[in-house]
Amino acid sequence: MSIFSWKISEEDMKTQVENYNNLKITESYRGISALLILGSMILIVVLAKLDMVSYDAVYGAIIYLPLAFFIWKGHRWAMIVMIGLWTFEKGYQVYATAGESSPIVAIIWWAIFVGYFVNALKVEIARKKITAKTV
């Protein structure tokens, strides 16, 4: 997968589904999604400690910790909520900094994160279809 691609090849989807419980956290879309969330939370805390962002951002990021856990566990609802929250957050960031800074950075971060969230969701949907057929 390219960093900006939201498409999963048939081969990659097959690997993700068949090796779901055996893939390392850095090899599965749900694992990478959880790591991206945790990494962004760590970055926010560091930036707050350096007085580069408000501590309000840290409090807002606390919402993401349980979502990262549920995404790692494969809950589709958590992926959908995260897509919505991340989209709202980056949209607000673009709106709030209009005229002060370029929206390009926020849009790039949005595209990278949501790409992984969407692909994790696609894998979970494919897994559900397979388990529904076997039941």
Primary descriptors:
mainly alpha; 135 residues
Q: Estimate percent helicity.
A: over 70%
Q: Please tally the β strands and state the result.
A: 0
The figure for the number of domains is 1
Give the C-alpha Rg. Answer: 16 Å
Our measurement of the CA-to-CA distance between the termini, rounded to an integer number of angstroms, reads 31 Å
Provide a count of the helices: 6
Which structural class fits the helix and strand makeup? mainly alpha
Largest sheet: none
Low-confidence stretches: none
Tell me which oligomeric state these chains represent.
Answer: single chain
Shape: elongated
Report a brief summary of the structure.
The protein is 73% helix and 0% strand.
Describe the structure.
This protein has 135 residues and is mainly α. It has one domain. The protein contains six helices and no strands. The longest helix is centred in the last third of the chain and has 31 residues, at 104-134. The chain is elongated, with a radius of gyration of 16 Å. The model has no long low-confidence stretch (mean pLDDT 90).
Describe how the helices and strands are arranged.
Blueprint: H1 10-18, H2 29-49, H3 55-61, H4 64-72, H5 76-96, H6 104-134
